[in-house]
Amino acid sequence: MISLKLKDRQAKVLTLMDLFSGAGGFTLGFAQAGFVPIFSVEIDKDAASTYETNFGPHCRKDDINNIKTFPDADVIIGGPPCQGFSNLGSHIPTDPR
Description:
97 residues; alpha/beta; four-stranded parallel β-sheet; two-stranded antiparallel ribbon; 6 strands; 30% strand; elongated
Protein backbone atom coordinates (compact mmCIF):
# COMPACT_ATOMS: atom_id res chain seq x y z
CA MET A 1 0.00 0.00 0.00
CA ILE A 2 1.18 3.51 -0.79
CA SER A 3 -0.08 6.40 1.30
CA LEU A 4 -0.32 10.00 0.17
CA LYS A 5 -0.41 12.76 2.75
CA LEU A 6 -3.09 15.34 2.03
CA LYS A 7 -2.94 18.34 4.38
CA ASP A 8 -4.58 16.93 7.52
CA ARG A 9 -5.30 13.37 6.36
CA GLN A 10 -3.86 10.45 4.43
CA ALA A 11 -5.32 8.79 1.35
CA LYS A 12 -4.66 5.13 0.59
CA VAL A 13 -3.44 4.46 -2.94
CA LEU A 14 -4.15 0.94 -4.15
CA THR A 15 -1.29 -0.80 -5.93
CA LEU A 16 -1.66 -3.12 -8.89
CA MET A 17 0.20 -6.15 -10.27
CA ASP A 18 -0.61 -7.28 -13.84
CA LEU A 19 0.28 -10.83 -14.86
CA PHE A 20 0.36 -11.67 -18.59
CA SER A 21 0.10 -7.90 -19.08
CA GLY A 22 0.48 -7.67 -22.84
CA ALA A 23 0.70 -4.02 -23.86
CA GLY A 24 -1.22 -2.99 -20.74
CA GLY A 25 -4.90 -2.79 -21.69
CA PHE A 26 -6.12 -4.03 -18.29
CA THR A 27 -3.57 -1.85 -16.51
CA LEU A 28 -4.81 1.20 -18.40
CA GLY A 29 -8.34 0.74 -17.11
CA PHE A 30 -7.18 0.24 -13.54
CA ALA A 31 -4.79 3.22 -13.75
CA GLN A 32 -7.65 5.38 -14.98
CA ALA A 33 -9.61 4.23 -11.92
CA GLY A 34 -6.78 5.42 -9.65
CA PHE A 35 -4.70 2.27 -9.10
CA VAL A 36 -0.90 2.54 -9.24
CA PRO A 37 0.80 -0.21 -11.28
CA ILE A 38 3.95 -1.46 -9.54
CA PHE A 39 4.77 -4.74 -11.32
CA SER A 40 3.88 -6.68 -14.45
CA VAL A 41 5.05 -9.75 -16.33
CA GLU A 42 4.92 -10.22 -20.10
CA ILE A 43 6.83 -12.78 -22.17
CA ASP A 44 6.41 -10.95 -25.51
CA LYS A 45 9.22 -8.41 -25.70
CA ASP A 46 7.39 -6.00 -28.04
CA ALA A 47 4.25 -5.97 -25.88
CA ALA A 48 6.39 -5.50 -22.75
CA SER A 49 8.20 -2.55 -24.36
CA THR A 50 4.85 -0.94 -25.18
CA TYR A 51 3.73 -1.53 -21.59
CA GLU A 52 6.89 0.15 -20.25
CA THR A 53 6.46 3.11 -22.58
CA ASN A 54 2.98 3.69 -21.17
CA PHE A 55 3.39 2.72 -17.49
CA GLY A 56 7.08 2.80 -16.57
CA PRO A 57 9.98 0.37 -16.16
CA HIS A 58 8.41 -2.19 -13.82
CA CYS A 59 7.52 -4.83 -16.44
CA ARG A 60 9.49 -8.09 -16.30
CA LYS A 61 10.11 -9.37 -19.83
CA ASP A 62 10.11 -13.06 -18.99
CA ASP A 63 8.12 -16.26 -18.78
CA ILE A 64 6.02 -16.08 -15.62
CA ASN A 65 7.33 -19.53 -14.65
CA ASN A 66 10.77 -17.97 -14.20
CA ILE A 67 9.57 -15.34 -11.71
CA LYS A 68 10.39 -16.58 -8.20
CA THR A 69 9.14 -13.66 -6.09
CA PHE A 70 6.44 -11.08 -6.56
CA PRO A 71 6.01 -7.76 -4.76
CA ASP A 72 3.09 -7.15 -2.45
CA ALA A 73 0.18 -5.52 -4.27
CA ASP A 74 -3.35 -4.66 -3.25
CA VAL A 75 -4.85 -6.01 -6.48
CA ILE A 76 -3.63 -8.69 -8.90
CA ILE A 77 -5.07 -8.81 -12.42
CA GLY A 78 -4.13 -10.88 -15.43
CA GLY A 79 -5.00 -11.63 -19.00
CA PRO A 80 -3.75 -15.18 -19.61
CA PRO A 81 -3.07 -16.20 -23.20
CA CYS A 82 -6.28 -17.26 -24.90
CA GLN A 83 -5.05 -18.64 -28.23
CA GLY A 84 -5.65 -22.24 -27.17
CA PHE A 85 -9.27 -21.80 -26.13
CA SER A 86 -10.53 -18.69 -27.93
CA ASN A 87 -13.49 -19.11 -30.28
CA LEU A 88 -11.42 -17.18 -32.82
CA GLY A 89 -8.52 -19.67 -32.65
CA SER A 90 -7.82 -22.86 -34.54
CA HIS A 91 -9.41 -25.07 -31.84
CA ILE A 92 -6.39 -27.37 -31.61
CA PRO A 93 -7.11 -29.68 -28.63
CA THR A 94 -3.40 -30.27 -27.94
CA ASP A 95 -2.52 -26.55 -27.83
CA PRO A 96 -1.00 -26.05 -24.34
CA ARG A 97 -1.94 -22.38 -24.21
